[in-house]
TrEMBL record:
This is ROK family protein. Gene3D superfamilies: 3.30.420.40, Winged helix-like DNA-binding domain superfamily/Winged helix DNA-binding domain. Pfam families: ROK (PF00480). It comes from the Bacteria. It comes from Streptomyces galilaeus. InterPro entries: ATPase_NBD, ROK, ROK_cs, WH-like_DNA-bd_sf, WH_DNA-bd_sf. The lineage of its organism: Bacteria, Bacillati, Actinomycetota, Actinomycetes, Kitasatosporales.
Amino acid sequence: MSSPADTETFPAATPAAAHLFTTVLSHGPLTRLEMARRAGLSPAAVTKAVRPLIASGYLAEEADAGAEAEVRPALGRPATLVRVDGGRALFIGVKLTGDEIIGVLTDLCCRILLARRVPLADRDPDAVLDATTDLVRELLTEADGYGVRVAGLGIAVSGDVDRAEGVVRYSPFLDWHDVPLAALVAAGTGLPVTVDNDVRALTVAEQWFGAGVGLSDFAVVTVGAGIGCGLVVHGRVVAGAHGVAGEIGHVTVEADGPPCHCGNRGCLEAVASDGAILARIRETGGTEVTGTAEAVERARQGDTGAREAYARAGNAIGRGIATVVNLFGPARVIISGEGLAAYDLFAEQIREAFQAAAFGSAAQCDVRTRPLPFEEWARGAAATAIQSFITAPN
């Protein structure tokens, strides 16, 4: 198993160097001229920043065969591309749900090398800690086969998460309050640990490696067991002063709506989450429904109560997305989450409600779906670990 003693600091002496590296990570391979343009740095600053990164193996240079014919006559030498060497370091990402732990091992470019899932029989923090530690140790053993050290571990948890302190303030699906998860897992694994809200972690992955690459302003809205939202404003994932920015799941969409676990009534999550949809079907139909799969099947077969519940949820989600777009003006909203399995049942209502509630040109926002399994959420956790590794002070 990889030894914690093998850890090292990332050789970026300045924030500008770290920014340059993430630029290549997201957009590369790039020529040095293109790196300077995208990062807003001078060519001399780029040369100075990449030197230690190349020397330490985090960046590599290669001839650009496509650009060589065009550039060589003018400059007298072939163009050179700079790329991230994804095999230089490994990372582990873990996504915690109410009944399962999903773990992935990734390279420095956040490409999943292998994934593991283990059931979670007990939500008590000690039991989850033990199961998480065991899974991480298994992945560390697997990492030995790649001959590269594991440089960090990211954990994604739903709810109110204080990333700076590594504390889960409140997680409704785990029923946790003030659990110092980062410190506990670090003690059990010997790895640097980053803990973040699961939707924000997914948003980091989309910003650096997914549908948000190249966008300075976008949002990720997740539907399923809960309703979440990650925000990127001016190129930065926004957590807010209290760490709960983007909680559209607790925006009121029905003033006299059903009670929410947060203590309020009519929250988007109380209307449009999987549990809320099931409750609505039971209430209007007067019959038991065992779970989401049965609810979806009933709706697709024409059950009136089930179809109404999904239509109501779609209307609420569309209004929630419009609220985000009206407030922040993102170029794109990415809808994801396990709830997309039923997207055909409420897609029309989402579109109609969004168009009706979006103000003016906000209605032009690119709203798209992106189904992502929980392995991708664990990948998001790994992305936060990569982010912490790159930006950690030396």
